[in-house]
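for the writeup, i need someone to sanity check this before i put it in the appendix. the sequnce is what the collaborator sent (i think, or maybe the updated version? ugh). structure was predicted straight from it, no edits. if anything looks off just tell me and ill rerun, i have time this weekend
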Amino acid sequence: MEFASAVDAVRCAIAVQEGMAERNIDVESDQRVEFRMGINVGDVVIEGDDLLGDGVNVAARLEGLSEAGGVALSANAFDYVDGKVDAAFAYYGEHELKNIARPVHVWRWSAKNQQKSSVVAQSQPSPLPDKPSIAVLPFDNMSGDTEQEYFSDGITEDIITELSRFGSLFVIARNSSFAYKGQPTNVTRIGKSLGVQFLVEGSVRKVGNRVRITAQLLNTQSGKHLWAERYDRKLDDIFEVQDDVVRHIAASVPGVLDRLAVDKMRRRPPSNLSAYDYELRGRWAYLHLAEGLPVALKWYEKAVLVDPEYAQAHAGLGAVLAFSAVGLGLEPETAFSQSKQHVQRAVSLDPKNPTINIYAGFTYHLTGEHNLARRHAERAVALNPNDPLSHYVQACALSYTGDPKKALDWFASSEQLEPYAPDDQRLDTLCDCYYMLGEYDKVFEIHAVYQNVPAFLYVVLAAAYAQAGRREEATAAFDEYERTRPDGHTPKQMLELQMQMCSRQDDRSRWREGYLKAGFEV
């Protein structure tokens, strides 16, 4: 039969099959007449009453792949009817068809599929949370070796697991993602089906003792590529390679999504923002000091006001309040008291959230409560070893509690997971770490590439120049601090806080000595 449109063909086929099913209700199974139907879109040649050509041949082969009482569609037919026919189709894989040059992707309809669709429709999940939603599609095994399937599937499963550690993401479960294994990737259709904004897809190709793994991040609404990376590794230890690649992918994706979300948010009026939006803006301003700590405080305070039960907003506000005692010169006793109240509230609301433990560790690092700082930093790393900030907070705790050399390893792994931006807040404590090790040239190198340097960092720079005997540069840094410092910020208060943060007397003495040499009144 020939139809003017694929939609008409599918509607007719389903109507016939449903009619046959009704007629067969009271008929013994061995007496029933059941049809199989195949539908394809293609050119046909008409000879008398016959329809000929490859378009017809594909449909005839699809008929054999249909279930009794069902309908089988080629991928090109399915693309025409998807979303236009009230029917549920299940992907049936790629098939080699007799006398057909290319494999055909097949979709099938049956009464069973329709019943499953009805059940799903009656139990639709609640709307997705107001945060980025993402699905990881099964990575393609391009090795031509079915035994390597376990490796590509393992990569996919591990990425899903590791992305799920990030509380800022809504990650679709493995079972839903793997329903698309072996299917052609229609980004928009899969995005609508799974209800996600973003997809991660990739491939694995193994040749000899080497493996190439590619990964890309896609926007399901526009179909655009947002990020892509290729990893070439030697397979000396297959599990080590798998862990290494998974960690890099899991660390990269959240940062990309945060940047996209912030860019989009800046184009929206503040009255349209949610608590999550406020929290994200606060987090961004806190981590990128070019925007300034006052901006971070403003957004975090709004987030807590809109949603007093939002644990991550409380945690972020606590960390920024504590940091503001150092960076803005807020009265330490009040700032620290308030910061710890917010952090304690956050931990009580969501104790197993790695981000909350990151902020708690940083807050206690600033308030000089060394045991708590280390405990929360170690917990954050255990909960999410892929988050560069968990490595950073571990480095902070080690820097000031007597192990700055070991801290440098954690700073390095933090940067490896997510390279430092030129206005990155993490550079602040890295400078402190090098200062306490007496490696003043490293402090100068960091400041040479640091953009929008906060005023308080000129105090550290001046102290480092003074310790290195570079008096003129120390004076210039001193003058720059005086020119840019916030009202209420003093070197004396900053030194007192640094002394409180240090657990070793040698570190305290080095800070005091540098301040005095630089000419600060302390």
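Residues 270-518 form a domain with the Serine Threonine Protein Phosphatase 5, Tetratricopeptide repeat fold (CATH 1.25.40.10). The CA atoms of residues 89 and 109 lie 5 Å apart.
thx in advance!!
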